[in-house]
Amino acid sequence: MRTIRTILGLLFLFCSIHLVTAQEMTAKKYENPNWVQMVYIKFKPMKKDAAMGIIQEYFAKADKNAGIEEPTVYHFATGDHDMLVVWEMEEGIETLNYEMTPNDAKWMNEMAKLAGGPDKAMAKMDEFFTYVDLWESSIARKE
After folding, report:
1. CA triplet 64, 84, 57: central angle to 5 degrees?
2. Which keywords accompany this UniProt record (predicted)?
3. In the chain, where the domains are located
C-alpha cells in the first residue's frame, strides 16, 4: 500500500510540474524560408549516358540561355537511385500556385530555340523520359 501511495505521489508531482511549466502555444512562421524541390531519378539500364547527353545538350543550355540558375546535381555511387537534382524554389512555396512559373516559360522558350521548335522541344523531353525508370519528387525547407 505504501508503494502505491509513493507512486501516486510521484505521479501527482510530475503532472503538477508539467502543468506549471507548460506555456501557451502560439502560431510561429518561418523567417525567410528557403524551399527546394528535390527529384530522385533512376534511369533504365544502360540509358543514363543517353539521358545525360540530353541534359547537357538541351536542359543545361536552356538554363544558361534563359538566365536560370542550374539545379544542384548529385550522382549516387550507392543506393536505389542514380541521381538527385535539387532546384531552388525562387518564390518559395508560392511556386506551387503556378501551373507554369515565369522561369518555366523562359526555359521552355529556350528549349524550343535549341530543339528547332516547340514540338521538337517536347519530343526531346519525351525522349529523355523514356530513359527514366523512376522519378520521385519531394519538397523540403533548407535550414
Report:
1. 35
2. Signal
3. 34-142
Q: For 66-91, b where at least 16 C-beta lie within 10 A, e where not — what string?
A: bebeebeeeeeeeeebbbbbebbbee
| C-alpha cell recorded at residue 23 | 506555456
User: What Rg, from alpha-carbon coordinates, does the chain have?
Assistant: 25
The CATH class given to the 34-142 domain equals alpha beta
| 35: number of Cβ within 10 Å | 19
For residue 97, which amino acid is it? N
Residue 21's alpha-carbon distances to 14, 15, 97, 114, 126, in angstroms, are: 11, 10, 41, 63, 59
DSSP state of 30: P
Dump pLDDT digits (tens) for 6-61.
665 656 656 555 555 567 899 998 888 999 999 999 999 999 999 999 999 999 99
CA 129 – CA 53 distance, rounded (Å): 13
pLDDT digits (tens, 9 = 90+) for 48-63: 999 999 999 999 999 9
CA nearest neighbour of 128 among 49, 36, 20, 70: 49
- Name the DSSP class of 116: T
